């Protein structure tokens, strides 16, 4: 199966049958340690996962960790940034977890994170954002934020289809646009780089379906499509249209959309539309609405309680995840998952990056990877272990035992190292 890696001799594979994950008691789970602060964070996090699983199941369940390489560690050991064996491992074992990986700006390798998502077709980047009591926040009411971002993870300007200024390729693209499509709007054609933004109906529909399935399963109140469709009509605007269409077509008995509202308003007036929406809410239907991305970024500060599950495009989702994470106390406790809900493939990872200035200082908050692991345990159906980690982390924060990022904004904090924060959680399990 592997070119260079040796498969673990202990443990069994997670499988998927009829769309349902089959999880053995000793699943093999591949992990990437990550670059920069990745090793510090991983070493802290894995101890928490193992301790929680041991305690929750009295030793009946145990994860067989399988280290796979990517990023600087992979390059130093194998000469490759993302070895084929790593992709094979994630394909074979279905569920994995990773630390952050470095992507240089402006040149060099393209994002390994994006490559992993594309290669495994992990089309939904799921990032829940909630407030933990006691976490210092820059806003007055961080507790009003309780959102789950479903970020499209395979398309958009993020796909990396770009042509650099001054190359024969960019000249070809620009000549094509100007000569074949009569494009006159490229302001400086001789000195432009060009990026392409693919957004498809299929890609939008599978993302919105996943977000709606989640909203229904979790009894959430609304799903908001966040887009910049007034300006980018055939990509972001189409995302909105296709999102409403798939919601109405496939979830007719479970949703009420603002598109429906508008149709009722046009035919019967505002009162009738308001009544229809109120009746849908009373019946527990999910309200599917939309908002333009820039307005959304101000409304999450001014009216966060109005937003619940979010479905958005790749780049918007990237910005929104960091902005919302900051609102509830920072990127240090912002978890995430990259999931293909059809094949069952999933790679869990924090929202933050490698924070290189803190590398090897045993300093940063491991909370984002720990909570990404909680999402992974939930995905496996190991809810008891997941819940025990959340409770223990909440207790550590309550005790004001926190890493530098919280300590600098908290009065009376007991500032601890990355590894010591993990110790505090383990003690509280
Ligand atoms: N999925 C992935 O692997 C991702 C990778 N990246 C990559 O990471 C690299 C660095 O990116 P950069 O833009 O600096 O963003 P980072 O998220 O790595 O760091 C930005 C700032 O966020 C804070 N921060 C990050 N991680 C933690 C943590 N665990 N605990 C507490 N605070 C934290 C720090 O704030 P402060 O300075 O205030 O202490 C840090 O300086 C780039 O190469 C980028 O491409 C970026 C995002 C995701
Ligand atoms: O791949 C990267 O380097 C950055 C990705 C990122 O910021 C994200 O997915 O949130
Ligand atoms: Mg990001």
Automatic annotation (TrEMBL):
Annotated Mg(2+) binding sites: 318
Enzyme class: oxidoreductase
GO BP field: glyoxylate cycle; tricarboxylic acid cycle
UniProt modified residues of type N6-succinyllysine: 98, 240
Residue ranges of domain Isopropylmalate dehydrogenase-like in the record: 28-425
Record-listed Phosphoserine modification sites: 111
Cofactor note as given: Binds 1 Mg(2+) or Mn(2+) ion per subunit.
Keyword tags: Glyoxylate bypass, Magnesium, Manganese, Metal-binding, NADP, Oxidoreductase, Tricarboxylic acid cycle
Modification N6-acetyllysine occurs at: 140
Needed cofactors: Mn(2+); Mg(2+)
GO terms of molecular function: isocitrate dehydrogenase (NADP+) activity; magnesium ion binding; NAD binding
Role: Catalyzes the oxidative decarboxylation of isocitrate to 2-oxoglutarate and carbon dioxide with the concomitant reduction of NADP(+).
Protein name: Isocitrate dehydrogenase [NADP]
Native organism taxonomy: Bacteria, Bacillati, Bacillota, Bacilli, Bacillales
């Amino acid at each position: 199966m592997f070119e260079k890696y040796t498969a673990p001799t202990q443990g069994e594979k997670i499988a998927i049958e009829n769309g349902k994950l089959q999880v053995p008691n000793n699943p093999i789970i591949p992990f990437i340690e990550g670059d920069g602060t990745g090793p510090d964070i991983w070493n802290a996090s894995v101890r928490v996962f193992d301790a929680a699983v041991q305690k929750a199941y009295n030793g009946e369940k145990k994860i067989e960790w399988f280290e796979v390489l990517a990023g600087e560690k992979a390059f130093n050991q194998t000469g490759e940034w993302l070895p084929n064996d790593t992709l094979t491992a994630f394909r074979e074992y279905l569920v994995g977890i990773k630390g952050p990986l470095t992507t240089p700006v402006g040149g060099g390798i393209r994002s390994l994170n994006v490559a992993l998502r594309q290669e495994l077709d992990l089309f939904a980047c799921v990032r829940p954002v909630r407030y933990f009591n006691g976490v210092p926040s820059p806003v007055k009411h961080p507790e009003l934020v309780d959102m789950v971002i479903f970020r499209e993870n395979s398309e958009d300007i993020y796909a990396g289809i770009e042509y650099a200024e001054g190359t024969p390729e960019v000249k070809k693209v620009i000549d094509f646009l100007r000569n074949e499509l009569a494009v006159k709007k490229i302001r400086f054609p001789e000195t432009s780089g060009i990026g392409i933004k693919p957004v498809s109906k299929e890609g939008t529909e599978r993302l919105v379906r996943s977000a709606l399935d989640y909203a229904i399963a979790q009894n959430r109140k609304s799903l908001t499509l966040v887009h910049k469709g007034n300006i980018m009509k055939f990509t972001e605007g189409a995302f909105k249209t296709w999102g409403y269409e798939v919601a109405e077509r496939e979830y007719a008995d479970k949703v009420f959309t603002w598109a429906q509202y508008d149709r009722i308003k046009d035919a019967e007036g505002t009162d009738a539309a308001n009544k229809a929406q109120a009746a849908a809410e009373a019946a527990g239907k999910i309200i599917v609405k939309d908002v333009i991305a820039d307005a959304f970024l101000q409304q999450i500060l001014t009216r966060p309680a109005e937003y619940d599950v979010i479905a958005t495009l790749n780049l918007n989702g990237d910005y929104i995840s960091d902005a919302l994470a900051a609102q509830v106390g920072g990127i240090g406790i912002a978890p995430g998952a990259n999931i293909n809900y059809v094949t069952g493939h999933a790679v869990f990872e924090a929202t933050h990056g490698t924070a290189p200035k803190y590398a090897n200082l045993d300093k940063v908050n491991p909370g984002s990877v720990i909570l990404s692991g909680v999402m992974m345990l939930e995905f496996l159906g190991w809810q008891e272990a997941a819940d025990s980690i959340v409770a223990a982390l909440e207790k550590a924060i309550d005790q004001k035992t926190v890493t530098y990022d919280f300590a600098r904004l908290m009065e009376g904090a007991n500032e601890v190292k990355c590894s010591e924060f993990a110790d505090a959680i383990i003690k509280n399990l």
